[in-house]
TrEMBL record:
<dbReference type="GO" id="GO:0010468">
    <property type="term" value="P:regulation of gene expression"/>
</dbReference>
<keyword id="KW-0479">Metal-binding</keyword>
<dbReference type="InterPro" id="IPR050331">
    <property type="entry name" value="Zinc_finger"/>
</dbReference>
<keyword id="KW-0804">Transcription</keyword>
<dbReference type="GO" id="GO:0008270">
    <property type="term" value="F:zinc ion binding"/>
</dbReference>
<keyword id="KW-0863">Zinc-finger</keyword>
<keyword id="KW-0805">Transcription regulation</keyword>
<dbReference type="GO" id="GO:0005634">
    <property type="term" value="C:nucleus"/>
</dbReference>
<dbReference type="InterPro" id="IPR013087">
    <property type="entry name" value="Znf_C2H2_type"/>
</dbReference>
<feature type="domain" description="C2H2-type">
    <location>
        <begin position="186"/>
        <end position="212"/>
    </location>
</feature>
<keyword id="KW-0862">Zinc</keyword>
<dbReference type="InterPro" id="IPR046341">
    <property type="entry name" value="SET_dom_sf"/>
</dbReference>
<feature type="domain" description="SET">
    <location>
        <begin position="36"/>
        <end position="152"/>
    </location>
</feature>
<dbReference type="Pfam" id="PF21549">
    <property type="entry name" value="PRDM2_PR"/>
</dbReference>
<protein>
    <submittedName>
        <fullName>PRD15 protein</fullName>
    </submittedName>
</protein>
<dbReference type="InterPro" id="IPR001214">
    <property type="entry name" value="SET_dom"/>
</dbReference>
Length: 212
């Protein structure tokens, strides 16, 4: 303590604690790369103050707008996996590498884009070009709409993933199975004709009655 001239373990009981000045918080590399017409929104706050973020449009983004390339560390093993994000790989020098983003200083804003669960909410398509991954809009994106991505067909093959979208579970209960007609044929007692269903036999018997 400079006031009493003593070297103490912890705070000075006479003069109290020091006034702590904190450094200014600097946004991560990924956040600094966000285009001015896009915004990050906190969608969920999980344990440990972990934020689940989404990327939203602030103005209309035209169809066929290209973003990228995706920035990440080339790795043979994925160290950071998030089920809400696409797993991305590229072909470099004959080898297949993951684009790994263990933290926000290892990537750009594209690491925040969540995957599309169905075709209706997909706004971007991911594909590989010259060893880099790009996202391109597949339709105009309206303001306040979240950017969501899925693999292009050829890139899905490269990623050994399905080219179709993840189907959401339906809230509608399945209909009960329809009772099947007996396998044995139905035989007309008047003429001996056989029918696959009782309904056909019944309509046939009406003909006999009409004749009578």
């Amino acid at each position: 303590c400079e006031d009493c001239g003593k070297s103490l373990i912890g705070e000075c009981k006479l003069h109290g604690p020091l006034i702590r000045a904190k450094d200014r918080v600097i946004p991560s590399r990924a956040r600094l790369t966000l285009p001015h017409y896009l915004a990050l929104r906190v969608l969920e706050l999980r344990a440990g103050n972990q934020q689940i973020l989404g990327v939203f449009a602030k103005k209309v983004i035209q169809k066929r707008t290209q973003f990228g390339p995706y920035v990440g560390q080339l790795s043979t093993k994925l160290t950071c996996y998030d089920e809400s994000r696409l797993v991305l790989q590229v072909l470099k020098d004959g080898g297949k590498y993951f684009l790994d983003t263990p933290n926000e200083d290892c990537g750009n804003w594209m690491m925040f884009v969540r995957l599309a669960r169905n075709q209706e909410e997909q706004t971007l398509v991911a594909y590989q070009h010259c060893g880099e991954v790009y996202f391109t809009t597949v339709k105009p994106i309206e303001p306040h709409t979240e950017l969501k991505v899925w693999y292009a067909a050829d890139y899905a093959k490269f990623m050994e993933a399905s080219a179709v979208f993840i189907k959401e579970e339906s809230d509608v209960s399945p209909l009960p199975p329809v009772a099947k007609e007996p396998v044995d044929p139905w035989i007309c007692s008047s003429c001996g004709s056989t029918f696959a269903t009782f309904a056909l036999l019944e309509s046939h018997q009406c003909i006999h009655k009409d004749r009578v």
